[in-house]
Amino acid sequence: MSIGSFGLFIRHEGRTVNPIIPLGLFKQRTFVTQNLVAALISGFLMGFEVYLPTWTQGLLGLPASLAGFAITPSSLMWIVGSFVAGKLLLVTTPKRIIELSLSFILIGGLAMALVPESTPFAWFFLIAAICGTGFGITITTTTVTVQSQVEPKDVGVATSLNT
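The structure assignment produced for this chain is given below.
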């Protein structure tokens, strides 16, 4: 979609009776920031899921199946992180939860950037687990927060946009 056609889309959405994405959602700061965080973390997640197996295969010389296995702890800890997010949402603000979860992701990201080429394969399980916990907490928190910021009729649109 070119910038010009994107502008036409926005103009049309603002004028139509039943828009695909109600533009009024973007007037809520929390909605916008939570979606921005989710988008940035999703971009990091894509890079992580390509980089970590590529590292283990290319630098450690592992077979592709084992290299792909390096990100498994991320998926498992994502589940744990989502449960943690649910508990935290009951006792603290989404902003504090996001700060915590981004700390996990930052630690994992820095570890990936700074570990030497000779790092043993097992360390990548730990890095993946740390990142997965952060992903689970972040994405669950942004999804639930976005859903709570909109009218019930817009929950589906808000969730889709967040995802």
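Interim note for the steering committee: The chain has seven helices and no strands. Residues 25-162 form a domain with the Growth Hormone; Chain: A; fold (CATH 1.20.1250.20).
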